[in-house]
Amino acid sequence: MSRPIRCVLVTGGAGFIGGNLVRLLLRERPDWTIINLDKLTYAGNLESLVDLKDNPRHQFVRGDIANAELVEHLISTHKVDAILNLAAESHVDRSILGPGIFVETNVAGTQVLLDEARRANVRFVQVSTDEVYGSLGPTGKFTELSPLEPSSPYSASKTAADLIALSYRRTFGLDVVVTRCSNNYGPYQFPEKLIPLMIANALESKKLPVYGDGQQIRDWIHVDDHARGILAALEKGKSGEVYNFGSENEHPNLFIVRELLKLLSRGDDLIEYVKDRPGHDRRYAIDASKARRELEWAPQVPFAQGLSRTVDWYRENRGWWERVRSGVYRNYYAQNYGARG
Ligand code: NAD
Ligand code: DAU
Asked: In this structure, are residues 267 and 261 in contact, taking their beta carbons and an 8 Å threshold?
């Protein structure tokens, strides 16, 4: 990429990865300004950004990525040099309960952003996911050349966005880079995802709902390592290329749940096996050698340390997740878990 970066538009920056990424960018690139565009859906939370409120290099804007006029206005007024697209509906179980919004935001919204990036001729990083590859058998790893076989409406919508982004490179010559990362964990993750849900439930002495036999495997990466990967893709990624990120931390869900219970000094009696997720991917594992080689990126956070720090964060920030879990969250919980019993 030839254009020097001074201002970056981050979308979805009030969400889990977006918020952690904005913090990392402000820390690591002291001469950059960040415009943070987020619709503040149920998953977006300004409480996750309170420490940035008075930072003159961070500007939060509430709005939809599908609003072309707003996006065009932000790019031109702030002279945006690059777009990092993290805005999305991100939870697989919600996509099973209601797929429509996933297509609207993840596919149509991304396409609007791509059009505006093209109009302004700025670099576009599409933050995609390893779920585009579908499910692995007991051996092997996903490389960037693995077939795309998404299982859920969520992962199918992310696959569509990922491919549309790459099509803008081939058809229009837009400067596009795509990243595909494995499961993130860390502070500020919405307590609908496995790790924060299990921590919050255990802290409230509620049952820990394990889907199926709990032997599904995920490859866990600390959110700061993913954020460092996105920054590396932005600065060093080759246009039109895809980069996998993963941390070589493959563990069955049951192992993760048991580790969390140990860290919280709670017993296995809290575990409750519930009906499996439809279309549940059995195993993800990432070959990140291309990112290691071409982006000079490597994960830095050892899993045991990252997990224990994450548990501490949820212990110390009880107000953050208790507020998030009140209100409409309860309707979702009843809908998703009520039927699994
Ligand atoms: P999240 O659900 O925590 O955050 C998503 C954010 O996007 C929220 O703040 C939400 O308000 C915002 N948003 C939703 N629709 C929007 C719209 N139309 N316009 C503007 N903002 C909108 O998700 P996350 O876990 O932080 O994931 C961020 C991105 O990274 C997603 O694109 C996801 O697919 C991808 N990803 C996530 C993981 C993971 O493990 N969490 C792994 C790989 C890739
Ligand atoms: O791999 C990257 C993807 O990781 C991201 O693209 C998604 O945005 C992110 O949500 C995540 O998807 P998963 O479906 O893998 O994450 P989730 O935390 O929902 O579930 C992790 C595993 O835990 C999965 O096998 C399902 C299981 N699970 C999950 C929940 C919420 C349970 O057993 N019980 C639960 O209550």
From this structure: yes
